[in-house]
Design goal:
Blueprint (H helix, E strand, L loop, with lengths): L1 E6 L8 H18 L3 E4 L19 H10 L5 E4 L2 E2 L5 H14 L6 E4 L4 H7 L6 H18 L10 E2 L4 E2 L16 E4 L6 H8 L2 E4 L5 H15 L7 E7 L9 H13 L4 E5 L7 H14 L10
Parallel strand pairs: 1-2, 1-11, 2-3, 4-5, 5-8, 8-9, 9-10, 10-11
Antiparallel strand pairs: 6-7
Helix pairs in contact: 1-2, 1-9, 2-3, 3-5, 6-7, 8-9
């Protein structure tokens, strides 16, 4: 099992003046202690599940680029970009740039978007959900087309919502055939169909519904002719190991539970991540304990 960290709150002691050094130390520690990946939310305001909207929030791709410069190994991605936040061609170029400058470590994490208040507040169009899913699918198609990397292959894209006359993407991504794509969400009819058709990975919340969701994904894969095993199954989690590691065994137990339901990679928030010590404890006690865990899905 691989572990990644998700940084969802930047309201740390010291205020904005200390954000850069603190984030750099978090990224360096994650890189050195064995985490597989580092993720940030692609939000412009703090989300209601984490705190009030006015809490500190960094723009996702700027934060990832900053962390790319101080790390050498961890993969980097957003959990997840709302498809309506950026024009697809610009998004493909942004992720490509992150991939090139990080030495091939970028993920495209993406979803249909849900935060209407944030979008309305910043003047971002927020169409009804059916249209957001249409835009998500066109965005996936455009990104994959722009990552094909064949000279002279930038043929126009004409979709229902987006029209690109020349989707040129130079330099190309270092990740081949393209930066891996993670689609977030558990919707059975639309989201998991898009995972089966386009994604390298899916992302779920840690609920007892996981085995059924994976069965649905398996069926979508059969429908579109995709190998189910080619899709990395990830889940969110809370890495609360306590101040001195006294809860580490509870965390390990939770990770074993997730592996038993078919999860291969767990991406977690870490309480008091700015103190660094929790990351060091996870690196010392948790990552080695679950390194050999392999998924054994219920009913497989």
């Amino acid at each position: 099992m691989k572990l990644g960290i998700s940084i969802g709150d930047f309201t740390w002691p010291g205020g904005p003046g200390k954000l850069g050094p603190t984030l750099a130390q978090i990224a360096k520690t994650a890189d050195q202690t064995g985490f597989d990946s580092v993720w940030v939310m692609d939000h412009f305001w703090q989300i209601r599940m984490n705190g009030p909207a006015h809490h500190d929030m960094l723009e996702g791709y700027s934060a990832l680029a900053f962390m790319a410069a101080v790390t050498s190994r961890v993969r980097l991605g957003t959990m997840v970009t709302g498809a309506v936040y950026r024009y697809p061609g610009v998004l493909a170029k942004t992720v490509t740039t992150l991939d090139v400058l990080s030495g091939g470590r970028a993920w495209l994490g993406i979803g249909a978007a849900w935060n209407e208040d944030e979008s309305r507040g910043l003047g971002i169009p927020f169409p009804p959900i059916a249209e957001r899913f249409e835009r998500l699918e066109e965005t996936l198609q455009i990104c994959l087309s722009m990552w094909e990397g064949k000279r002279g292959s930038e043929k126009p894209f004409s979709g229902k919502h987006y029209q690109l006359q020349r989707p040129l993407n130079v330099p190309q991504s270092l990740s081949r055939p393209h930066p891996p794509i993670l689609i977030g969400g558990m919707g059975e009819k639309k989201t998991l169909r898009l995972v089966a058709q386009y994604a390298s990975a899916c992302n779920f919340f840690p609920t007892p519904e996981l085995p059924r969701k994976l069965d649905v994904l398996r069926e979508h894969c059969k429908t579109v002719g995709r190998n189910y095993d080619d899709i990395e199954k990830t889940a969110m989690f809370a890495f609360d190991v306590g101040e001195n590691g006294e809860k580490a065994n509870q965390v390990i137990g939770g990770l074993r539970w997730l592996a038993g339901m078919g999860i291969q990679t767990v991406i977690g928030g870490v309480p008091h991540i700015d103190r660094i010590k929790p990351l060091e404890i996870i690196g010392e006690k948790v990552i080695p304990a679950v390194a050999d865990l392999t998924p054994s899905p219920v009913g497989a």
